[in-house]
User: What shape does this take?
Amino acid sequence: MNCKEHLGKKVLDNNLNLIYSKVDQIFFWLLLSQWLFAIILSLLISPYNSADKPHTLDTQVEIAILVGGLINVVPLILICIRPGWWLTRQSVAASQMLWSGLLIHLTGGRIETHFHIFASLAFLTFYRDCRLFPTATIIVTANQLIGALFWPESIYGIANPDGGRFLEHTAWLLFEDIVLILGCLRLKTEMKLVAEREAELECLNADIEQQVELRTSELRVTSNSLAQEMKTRLEIETELRQAQKLEAVGRLASGVAHEINTPIQFVSDSIYFLRDATVDLLTVIEKLQKVQQSVMVGTPSRIAVDEAIAAAAEADLPYLVESIPKAFDRSIDGLGRVASIVRSMKEFAHPDSKEMASVDLNRAIESTLTIARNEYKYVAEVEKDFGDLPPVLCYAGEINQAILNIIINAAHAIGDVVQGSCQKGQIYVRTRQEGENVTITISDTGAGIPEQIREKIFDPFFTTKEVGKGTGQGLSIARAVIIDKHKGHISLESEVGKGTTFFIQLPIHNVGVSVGN
Assistant: This one.
């Protein structure tokens, strides 16, 4: 027996047991009602004996009370203690048929009371149990046979009934049994079909639940795998961003070194000039001190005066007076430029914070342009148009990196155009506040981006540069920083042969609402 058949049999048995218990309760009250009806019926038909006898309860009333009680006692007890039991049903069937015989007897064999037999058999079909009809038929047949032999008037209402009447009653009884048994079988067949459908649905539900549980388990595993993959991807993305940043710093190191070398050379030359000028001035001072001493003792020395004049002429005092302040200015200017480059490098290379901080974007962009100067100074001039901006809540290091990537791309694009000529291109950087956002515009006069590849330029590892010159990560990282981390927006406009303009929008307070798709 497979799972479906076993479950179907179990469902059918449960349904039948439920029906048996409910029908038992119905017959419990029916048996009590019949007992009460029999007592009332006996009182109405012959409540007392004849007038010449004492006024006592008639024998019919005693029969109704005593015999009715005996008929009811067994089934009522079984219904109370064992509802749904097979023997309880059999006792109910026997009791119901005995009640038919008792009511027929109490009414003196009235033909109308015989219909109680057929009604009782019909009531027994509520059980859907065909085994009850043989018991009921045997009891009714035996009751009528004994009554016909010994008390014919109590069964048929006449003293000498026709012998064929018993057979006629029995034939009608058997006919109803056949009809009711067929009905019970059909009802039970329908219940079996319903139980099988219910079992099929339960098996299907169990199978679906098992599949859902299996799919849920698979989805849970897949979800955990995806979460781990996302975590790994984020770690790799962070490492790539840091690697790209270090690569940019490394690539810019030589340029920064050159940028620092020029003002250092100014300072060095000025220091050497000031050292020589100091030696010459000290010589003149020494000669003048000798002249002063000769005058102080009252014997001025012509020789000392001539030596002082010769030393002053050799030192070229007018030239020193004019050049020494300039040398100091050049030194101060050079040191200021070195400090600016070092400060910009420090701000750019500062470790990224895990929390957003309020940043002066204009200063951040200025620092980025400073350390990137060696990338563009030979091919382009930079024009800055910084507007008044409030502090912007962002990750400063990552914004610097994104802007640096775009500046370097702009320098390379212009370099490809002006290569081999003495001309320079133009990089234009503009910042403005627009409502709750800050817009950074970076334009270049490079060759522009062909329309067919504009949608790919933000894809990881996509590059149009020569092998070894670009990694294809710059704009991809810039897009991830601006859109994913800052809920901002980055777009571009480009015209082949004229240049490209990038537009970066950042929310000032970064409340987590994207300003663009």
